[in-house]
Amino acid sequence: MTNSAKSVFVFGVYLTIIGAILLIIPNALLTLFGVANTSEVWIRLSGILLMALSVYYIVAAKHNLHIIFRVTACIRCTIIFFFSAFVYLHMMEPVMLLFAAFDFAGGAWTYFAMKKEGSW
């Protein structure tokens, strides 16, 4: 597995774990990050969606799908801007920027790995 594929695979595993937690025990994660607990179904729906999305990342990594790597690197690097805007507008807690930072770092990892491999 190339380094770019590994970066996408790791992100897929990360999404699977976060998604499963949001689906099964969402308030445990929310409490950990100081976000108010909820009984809304949306948090569990987010978990299902993250788990579904994780499948695409894992399959793309296993099949070395460079076009997916390129697209995900770009998209994951933009998440921090959206989250920052949501925090600025008081729509989300600042602690959520940690997730955006992880997305950004993962997107950068994929980008630089692809550049090094000559596949960007």
What does this structure look like?
- The chain has 120 residues and is mainly alpha-helical.
- The protein has one domain (3-117).
- Helices cover 79% and strands 0% of the residues.
- The chain is built from five helices and no strands.
- It has helices spanning 3-24, 26-32, 41-62, 66-88, 97-117.
- Helix 1 (3-24) runs antiparallel to helix 5.
- The longest helix has 23 residues, at 66-88.
- It starts with a helix and ends with a helix.
Question: What keyword list fits this structure?
Answer:
single chain; 120 residues; mainly alpha; 5 helices; 79% helix; globular
Query: What is the number of helical segments per DSSP (H or I, 4+ residues)?
Result: 5
The major β-sheet equals: none
Between the first and last Cα atoms, what is the distance in angstroms?
16 Å
- Average pLDDT rating: 96
Q: Look at the helices and sheets and give the structural class.
A: mainly alpha
* Spans where pLDDT lies below 50 across 5 or more residues: none
Radius of gyration: 15 Å
Counted beta strands: 0
Percent in helix: over 70%
Q: What number of domains?
A: 1
Sequence of secondary-structure elements? HHHHH
Shape: globular
Strand content: under 5%
